[in-house]
Design brief:
Blueprint (H helix, E strand, L loop, with lengths): L1 H7 L6 E4 L6 E6 L3 E6 L5 E5 L4 E3 L4 E3 L4 E3 H11 L13 H11 L10 H16 L5
Antiparallel strand pairs: 1-2, 1-5, 2-3, 3-4, 6-7
Length: 136
């Protein structure tokens, strides 16, 4: 399965989420004061302080009742389930719709520890990576 992930996805080590900033960012280079990133949405480059809350997508996992699944595996399952199509638009869907959609491809996710805001981000990020053609 890991072989499939490496073939389907860009290295998620290089894709970052920055606390307080919407969207996702590609790591351009590390600097003495932090990192230089490029927005996946508008391609603008911005410096980010080393004190900022920065997470690589490869370090993010989703709780299930038995284990934590890395985001790469979650996206691989979703991509396979959707046959490469976009996911539900999380900005327009209700919490119940999002939970049902999540349960459809990841039935054992921990509903108590995975909040609706996490599910919204999960699908929003998936669609952004899809739109940037980073999921082929």
């Amino acid at each position: 399965m890991l072989k499939t992930l490496k073939n389907n996805f860009m290295k998620l080590d290089d894709i970052l989420s920055i606390g307080g900033k919407p969207g996702l960012y590609k790591l351009v280079k590390a600097t003495r004061q932090g990192v230089l990133v490029e927005s996946l949405v508008d391609k603008k480059r911005i410096p980010v302080s080393q004190r900022a809350d920065v997470s690589a997508l490869s370090d993010i996992a989703i709780y299930t009742y038995e284990e934590e699944l890395p985001l790469t595996e979650i996206y691989d399952r979703l991509y396979t389930k959707l046959d490469g199509a976009r996911a539900i638009d999380s900005s327009k869907a209700s919490t119940d719709e999002l939970r049902a959609y999540m349960s459809d491809f990841l039935a054992d996710y921990d509903e108590e520890r995975v909040y609706p805001s996490h599910i919204k981000k999960l699908f929003a990020w998936y669609n952004l990576l899809h739109d940037c053609e980073l999921l082929n």
